[in-house]
Design brief:
mainly alpha
């Protein structure tokens, strides 16, 4: 692989972000990997890396387990996951860059300024399930399970540690199912396993560092920095996707 360093750099950045925020491995990693890997390979690699990061977080950043709060998210996520897995092979590279870029440009600024948005006082369980469903779809497209649930939990005023507990358990549950589904459907090829063997060590240290930063420093400040970088990545992806259309 000629640009192996981009794969490793993406893994390190994604591990750090997930350690800090409890989600975001797939979103960060894909913003790097989509430039040099096929969408299916990038998605499979992102899911494997996200599982590793979540397992590290489960050990190093332990939070409570509230089955009542978690159940609607997981049930919705399990319904949405097959749709995401079905859609993944249908995407070509240009459309994948365009869709992912649009997603980053729209969602990341919303999450950056989520503290300024009005709180949603009423949070019905069906709404949690609906958010989980869309999280499952995003998980099937590349392990990006936690972005929409994180925004929803923030908008509903969930306390930081309670939000971390929901996201951590939701992400780990959905990502384990996604991994099994990817393996069963042949998306995790021998080449993906070889690439993962290269990036797995690069994920470890940044994930541990991110967990320590989460415990000792303001998560909000770091999240703002990360989301700002992701917004810039989204803009770059949009330019890369649209540029060939403009020059022809």
């Amino acid at each position: 692989m000629d640009a192996w360093w981009i794969v490793v750099l993406g893994a390190m950045a994604a591990g750090l972000v997930q350690g800090i925020a409890g989600f975001g491995f797939g979103m960060v990693a894909m913003s790097f990997w989509v430039w040099i890997l096929e969408p299916q390979a990038a998605a499979a690699l992102a899911v494997l890396g996200a599982v590793q990061g979540q397992l590290i977080a489960a050990v190093t950043v332990r939070r409570g387990f509230n089955a009542c709060a978690l159940a609607p998210f997981i049930l919705g996520g399990l319904l949405g996951l097959p749709l995401g897995i079905y859609l993944l092979p249908q995407l070509d590279m240009q459309w994948f860059k365009l869709l992912l870029g649009m997603f980053l440009v729209v969602v990341c600024p919303l999450m950056m300024f989520s503290a300024l948005l009005p709180r949603i006082a009423y949070r019905p369980r069906w709404a949690d399930a609906l958010v989980g469903l869309f999280g499952g779809v995003m998980g099937g497209l590349g392990g990006m399970t936690g972005v929409l649930p994180s925004l929803w939990c923030t908008l509903t005023g969930m306390e930081k540690d309670a939000q971390r507990a929901v996201l951590q358990n939701f992400n780990l549950s959905l990502l384990l199912v996604t991994t099994a589904s990817y393996i069963a459907t042949g998306l995790v090829t021998a080449e993906v396993w070889l690439t993962y063997a290269m990036v797995a060590p690069a994920i470890l240290i940044p994930s541990l560092m991110g967990g320590k930063l989460y415990k000792g420093l303001s998560e909000r400040r770091f999240k703002q920095c990360v989301l700002g970088l992701l917004t810039a990545s989204g803009i770059t992806m949009l330019i890369a996707a649209v540029w060939p259309l403009l020059v022809h």
